[in-house]
Write a structure and sequence with these properties.
This protein is of the alpha+beta class and about 325 residues long. It has two domains: about 110 residues, no CATH class; about 130 residues, Histidine kinase-like ATPase, C-terminal domain (Heat Shock Protein 90), CATH 3.30.565. It is about 60% helix and about 10% strand. The chain is built from eight helices and seven strands; from the N terminus they run H-H-H-H-E-H-H-E-E-H-E-E-H-E-E. It has a five-stranded mixed beta sheet with strand order 2-4-5-7-6. Strand 6 and strand 7 form a beta hairpin. The longest helix has about 55 residues. The relative contact order is 0.06.
């Protein structure tokens, strides 16, 4: 839409004046309309007319230079503003002035910045509500789960038929799974809201892996797993948060317990540049007796990113391999 101060109108006006004045000045210089102090026998033109022609040419060039220079300056200012984001990652609004094409572009840019800021604010609010909902659900589910676990434990102490005992064991297994899922949901909420602070320190990796596997060793052994633990005798130190790394490993062990029981195999190895956890289950995309591995591995992946570690999960029909690389 055209405006009262359109750059196109100014451009056309400038060239109209040039197209009008230059021929007139050239005509005056040719016919010698202006009187000359020193007559010239070889030409009918006068020095004053020629001077006027030169003056008009110089004036046209100067005005054109100023005109396009101002346009270039405004465009560069807009470009610099777009390339200089604020603390929240969004560009700063630009100060608008004239109501021409560049002014319209500046207003459109400012409108885009406002819409982006509003969208970012809506995303933050939705994320806050989501975290609050997850935290509330996690807390609200703990009480009934604890009560159900107590009743299941009491039921196991009663004389039961083999079928009833299998059902009670299945109930206990599902309750444990739900409890771990609730813990993972709460941990994810705390992590993403910054309430689970990251405190890096120089950590001896082999010792940490051994300590994290101690509680799980009898679990896997009772299920008849073949266990391979390869830990170096030479100390290896990483700059990580030990509690975060232990939580990552614990989530990996939980994943093996839920999804790889049929493989009856777990291998944990510590190399100079990585930690490996392997199983021979059906893989995360295959059939397994537990669901919901996503939240636990997502927590581990989030922690790895925050600690500047590389997180890789390779899963197939022959098992799953998790690597935590330095």
């Amino acid at each position: 839409m055209k405006t009262r101060k359109s750059l196109l109108n100014q451009y056309l006006l400038l060239h109209f004046l040039a197209a009008t004045l230059l021929p007139v000045c050239f005509l005056l210089a040719t016919v010698g309309v202006f009187p000359s102090r020193v007559p010239s026998e070889s030409s009918g033109s006068s020095p004053d007319a020629l001077s006027l022609l030169v003056f008009v040419l110089v004036l046209f060039v100067a005005i054109s230079w100023i005109f396009f220079g101002r346009i270039r300056k405004r465009l560069r200012s807009l470009q610099e503003t777009m390339a200089s984001p604020s603390d929240d990652g969004l560009p700063l609004p630009i100060r608008t002035g004239r109501r021409d094409e560049i002014g319209q572009l500046e207003e459109s840019f400012n409108r885009m910045v406002r819409e982006l800021a509003e969208s970012r604010q809506r995303e933050r609010e939705e994320e806050r509500l989501r975290r609050q909902l997850i935290a509330s659900l996690s807390h609200d589910l703990r009480t009934p789960l604890t009560a159900i676990r107590g009743h299941a434990s009491r039921l196991n102490k009663e004389p039961l038929t083999p079928a009833a005992r299998d059902s009670a064991a299945s109930i206990d297994h599902k309750i444990s799974f739900l409890g771990q899922l609730v813990d993972n949901l709460l941990s994810y909420s705390l992590l993403t809201s910054g309430k689970y602070p990251y405190r890096p320190e120089r950590t001896e990796i082999a010792r940490l892996v051994r300590r994290s596997f101690v509680d799980w060793y009898p679990v896997f052994e009772s299920m008849g797993f073949q266990i391979e633990l390869d830990l170096p005798e030479t100390p290896l130190h990483w700059e990580v948060d030990p509690s975060w790394l232990e939580r990552m490993l614990d989530n990996c062990y939980q994943n093996v317990n839920r999804h790889a029981r049929s493989g009856k195999y777990i291998a944990v190895a510590v190399k100079p540049d990585r930690i490996e956890i392997r199983d021979r289950g059906p893989g995360l995309t295959g059939d397994s007796d537990g669901k919901g591995a996503g939240i636990g591995l997502e927590i581990a992946a989030y922690m790895a990113r925050e600690m500047k570690l590389r997180w890789e999960v390779v899963s197939g029909e022959d098992g799953t391999r998790v690597e935590i690389r330095k």
